[in-house]
Amino acid sequence: TSKEVDLNDVTAQVVVFDTNLTPELTLYANENTSGKLIIFVKGDANLNVNFVAQPYSNYSLLWIYDEARESLVKENIELQAGAELKYYIAEVSQHQVKRQTEVNLVGSGANLEFKSASIATAIIEWQQHVVHHAQNTYAFVQNYGMVYENAQFLLDVKSHILKGMKRSETHQQNRIMNMNEKPRARVFPQLIIDENDVKASHAATVGQPDPNEIYYMQSRGLPYSEAIRLLSLGYIMPVLEIVKDEVLFESLRVLFEEKVLAHA
Fold first, then answer.
1. Mean pLDDT, rounded, of the chain
2. Domain count, the chain
3. What is the DSSP string of the chain?
4. Looking at the domain assignment, is residue 99 inside a domain?
């Protein structure tokens, strides 16, 4: 069954969503409304998410895939005129997953900040596609990930500014850290620019923990395992920046730390 939710009707700061009960979810951010929501996802069914940010809405969402055992997640995100959206994802379920994320900026002035943090202990395949359908639109896609032994992380990120969409900006930043000697991560960033009067950039790094950073931390008295833990946390903590409640922030930090410690 599918479910439609008006975010303006959601009074809780944190909700839990079970894919076994509802494999399709549509969220609406109504015109001129604003808010923040943290969504914990559990269950082992495939999931389709539709998100519509109506004109001049302003929302921050953090999806935490902690207990989910999903095999396929499809996300369709639409930003209308003047909508501002922070859409963050923590993929820490530690199960094999395929993800497809499609973002369409269809109204002038739409502004997207997309950020993900992933802990790969199995195979993660993620396709992300951001399309600018209107002028004066902005998108910044950031992906952070850690890849552990016997895991793979395959990330395809495509940003497309269509012809005529003047004064638009699209940017990517992808940073993946291999936590073992065998590189098992691949990042394929793409910029498709069909208009001249725009700004676009991408950066992608895939590598192992910086030995100089580890050496420095060890020289300050930290054991190797603690140095690796701190470096790892630095890769996934950025998705928590929208959490302003101190108690909730600390509980999520502990959750992420437990995930890291399980493999450090």
1. 92
2. 1
3. -EEEEEGGG---SEEEEETTT-SEEEEEE-TT-EEEEEEEEEESS-EEEEEEE-TT-EEEEEEEEEEE--SEEEEEEEE-TT-EEEEEEEE-S-S-EEEEEEEEE-STT-EEEEEEEEEESSEEEEEEEEEE-STT-EEEEEEEEEE-TT-EEEEEEEEEE-TT-TT-EEEEEEEEEESSSS--EEEEEEEEE--SS-EEEEEEEEE---HHHHHHHHHTT--HHHHHHHHHHHHHGGGGGG---HHHHHHHHHHHHHHHHTT-
4. yes
